[in-house]
Structure formats: C-alpha cells, structure tokens
Write a structure and sequence with these properties.
The protein is an alpha/beta fold. It has 15 helices and 20 strands. The two termini are 30 Å apart.
Length: 502
C-alpha cells in the first residue's frame, strides 16, 4: 500500500472513497457544508435519516454527487469532548473494515476533523490514521484461509488529505511511522490468534528467530536442559507437564552491553503460555479455547522489538519471552510443590493456574542478568483485572514512581489506556510461605494486587507490569476490529523504547 499525503481541500482529491470523520453534532458549515453542497445534499440527507450520529465508529456510505470520488463514507467518532488518539485510530480502522466484501483500490481520509479532535496535532492525526487503516485491515480468518468475505480489501493507495499549505514531508513520515507500528501490531495479532496445536513453545521460538533474522536481531533460545543448568526453577515447573517442551526466547538489538541515549538497557518481558489448561488446578471447560491467547504477551514483545528495529535500527533493546504449555499430566507440578527461582527464592506453588507470574519472575531475573537496567512485562496475567477494568482498559503496577511516569507517557503517545494499581505492603505477610519464601497464590480478595506484589519480588531495577488479561483480545467484533487479538500494548512498548533514541 502506497501512502500519499496531499495538502488540499477534501473535494479536490480523486479516490474510490472519501472518508469524512465526524464527532459531536455535525455542523454543515465551512468545509463540511461545502462537501454537502457538492454531493447534492447527501450529508444532510444521511443526517436526516439518523446515519451520521449513531453508535460510535459506525460508518455510512453516501453518493458523491459532483465530488471526484466513487463514494462518500462518514464515520461518527462519538462525543467531541472524548476524542483522543485512540479515537482517531479507530475512525480509520472502522472505515477500512466497513469495506469488507467490497473492492476499493484507493481511499482518501480527510485529516481535518481528526486534527481538530486532537487539538491541532496534524502529525498525530496522520500517524493514527495510517496505523488505523493497517490495523483495521487485519482479519484473523485469513490466517488459515487465503480469502474471506470478512476481510477488508487490500488498498493500492491511502491518501491522507491535509490542510492546504501543510508541509507534506513530515506528515508523510508520520504516516509511515504509523504504518510500521500497525504492521508490528498485526504480527503480534497473527501469532496470538494461531491455535495451540499450531503454535507450541518450540514453534513460537522458531517464529521469533525467523522474525529476528528478518529484522537484524540476535536470537537465543534456551531449552529445558540449559534452563535447568541456569536454575530457572519456576519457569521449568510450569512447562514440565506438557509433551511440548518449554523455551525461553531472547531477542536482542544493539551492541552487547550498549545503552540508549537515556542510559537504559530496556528489557521487554512477555508471558508466553501457548496454551493454559490451568495444570493440576484445571480451569472450567467454558471458554478454555480462549487460553491459546495466553501467549499474547510474548507475541507482543517479539513484535515490538522487531518494530523498534525498523524505526531505530541498532537501538539497544532486549525482549525475553518465556514460552510454555501449562498442562495436567504425570509430570505436572502439584499444588504444594516448592521450587527454587532463578533469583534464589523458594516459591510454594499453591495454585498451578497462577503460572504466569512464575515464568515471568525467572524471565525478569534473567533479563537483569543480561544487563537490563529497566523492565516492562506484559501479560494476560489475571482474570481479576478484567473484572475490575473491563476489556478497554489494561491494569498496571510499577516500582518506582518515576519509571511509571515514563511508561504512562509512552502509553499516552501510543493512544492506549492503562490504569495503575497500588502495591500494598500490608498484604505482604499473607504471601509468606510456611515452608518457603512466598506463595504464588492466595485468597480471592486482593488477588490482583498480590499478583503485582509477587512480581515485585523479582527485580532490582525499575520495573512496570502491564496486565492485559482483559484487553488482549476481543470476544466479539467491533466496527474497528475483528474478534480476536487486538495488539494492545505493542505501541506503548515501541514508544517507550523509542524514547531512548538519540
């Protein structure tokens, strides 16, 4: 897909489709009024039918009249006061998804309303529009089938219509940046959506190494024998119940030991449970098929380091993805087993379904051994976060506060929403083990906070945890996205890493 930026009035651009974003109550004045006049009153007609101001991100098609385009499409973005970068991205994604089952070679998106909604930030509007088109074009049905009526058309050209006189070069660069971030998110989504019998820990490691080779990254895969020699007791405890052996995947960019312009050697850690049955503490049957998504964190960090390598080649960065299957079997860990973590702590496994924190703890320790100075882990860690925050806001823990400020700023630039939760020292006594140093689970009350406090025991450098259990995938279709993995946190990790670019 070619991306072209033109500084023109929206009625001066030729394309198969012109996308007109709207928010709040449409006012048919200025440019919107002129588009309506040239379309023969089509927008006012649609408005009279209630098509312009319906549910958020719903798109309506209209006749072009005298406009040099094949069709008009309006996308309502909701209330003007709630418009943000995520809104701008979803508008573009909704537009491309509305074309599913149709043909279109070129689509023009009028940036004016997006720029206004973003307080005049036309650069951000261009980036989010391009990213939205790329992410909106992703259709998981095509993973196992080449064609699907649900898939939006593959565009030859995306035209971003900027205000007359706007410098086109920086807008084109922003759009290209958005395209690259969107393509990275789709890599993560494609991996996450693949089934458990398709992507085992070994296969995920092979896919990671192929991505690394394509992007000039170093790849190291630690098998179960080497993990035992290193002392990764928690990691091995989770994976030993499956016939598919575990793999600790490590991707690196930049020179050995190098730091970025902020003096960081950032490590991204992603939970990679390729299928989670719960182990001996087995899950209920209902919705267990969704547990192929428990590898989403690993898919996200693998994609993120690849995306960063495209935008800032050679930037020092580490990605660690502990990949396992958590299965019941004669070799599975039992409730009450005590294992030694890589950092020397003895952990009492009270619940084998609280497995994500075990593999993440050893991965965090190993990242520090590789020289990481700052850590961010991303994981589908707890059902509690979904019950607390729903499927549109991710949870977060961090220590210390200044590091969280940097992560939150990256999330804001990415247009993603996280809600920081507290680490409560008063709960620490409840996490102590009678036989070891700490337990991996406990009472339901405060379980979300205790998950963060468990991970807080496995770092000595600044750390943040992003719990995406509620937001990693959609369980239904939205106007802006298909059912399945949505690529959440990928852009935040990319923005965080790129903050250290010289």
């Amino acid at each position: 897909m070619q991306i072209r930026v033109v500084s023109a009035r929206p009625w001066e651009v030729s394309a198969d489709l012109l996308v007109i974003p709207l928010s709040g109550e449409p006012a048919f004045a200025d440019e919107l009024g002129e588009i309506d006049r040239r379309s023969g009153g089509e927008l006012r007609t649609l408005h009279g039918l209630g098509e312009l101001r319906t549910k958020a991100y719903c798109a309506a098609l209209g006749a072009p009249g005298e406009l040099p385009v094949g069709r008009l499409m309006t996308v309502w973005a909701g209330k003007a006061e709630t418009f943000d970068r995520e809104t701008a991205r979803r508008v573009a994604a909704s537009a491309i998804r509305r074309l599913a089952g149709r043909s279109a070679d070129s689509v023009a998106i009028w940036l004016g309303p997006l720029t206004k909604g973003l307080g005049g930030e036309e650069i951000a509007a261009a980036e989010q529009a391009a990213r939205g088109v790329v992410e909106g074009g992703f259709e998981p049905k095509t993973i196992y089938r080449e064609d699907s009526d649900a898939a939006p058309p593959k565009l030859d050209e995306l035209i971003l219509v900027a205000s007359p006189g706007s410098p086109e070069a920086p807008l084109r660069a922003a759009a290209e940046r958005g395209r690259i971030i969107g393509e990275g998110a789709n890599i993560a989504r494609r991996l996450a959506n693949r089934s458990g019998n398709d992507v085992t820990p070994v296969v995920l490691a092979e896919e990671a190494c192929a991505i690394a080779e394509a992007h000039g990254l170093a790849c190291d895969v630690i098998d179960e024998h080497r993990a035992a020699e290193l002392g990764m007791g928690m990691f091995l405890a989770v994976g030993k119940g499956s016939d598919n052996p575990p793999r600790m995947i490590v991707l690196r960019s930049g020179d050995e030991g190098a730091k970025d312009s902020l003096g960081r050697r950032l490590a991204l850690i992603g939970k990679g449970v390729c299928f989670d049955s719960g182990g001996i503490s087995i899950k209920p049957a209902a919705h267990m098929e969704e547990m192929k998504m428990d590898k989403t964190g690993a898919c996200t960090v693998i994609a993120a380091i690849a995306t960063v390598s495209r935008l800032a080649p050679g930037l020092p960065l580490i990605a660690v993805a502990p990949a396992v299957e958590n299965m019941p079997g004669s070799h599975s860990s039992r409730p009450g087993d005590i294992v030694r973590a890589l950092n020397g702590q003895w952990v009492d496994i009270i619940n084998t379904d609280a497995e994500g924190r075990l593999i993440l703890g050893d991965a965090m320790t190993y990242a520090e051994q590789l020289g990481a100075t700052h850590l961010v882990d991303v994981a589908t860690l707890t059902g509690a976060v979904a019950r607390a925050l729903g499927n549109m806001v991710s949870g977060a823990f961090a220590n210390p506060d200044p590091w969280w400020d940097e992560v939150a700023a990256a999330a804001s630039r990415a247009g993603e929403r996280f809600w920081r939760l507290p680490l409560v020292p008063d709960y620490a006594p409840e996490m102590e083990s009678v036989y070891g140093d700490l337990v991996n689970s406990g009472a339901a009350e405060g379980s979300l906070v205790r998950s963060g406090m468990f991970l807080d025991r496995f770092h000595t450098v600044p750390w943040a945890h992003l719990d995406i259990a509620g937001t990693a995938y959609y369980t239904k279709r939205y106007p802006f996205a298909a059912r399945g993995a949505c690529g959440v946190a990928h852009a935040t990790l990319v923005e965080l890493a790129l903050a250290g670019r010289a």
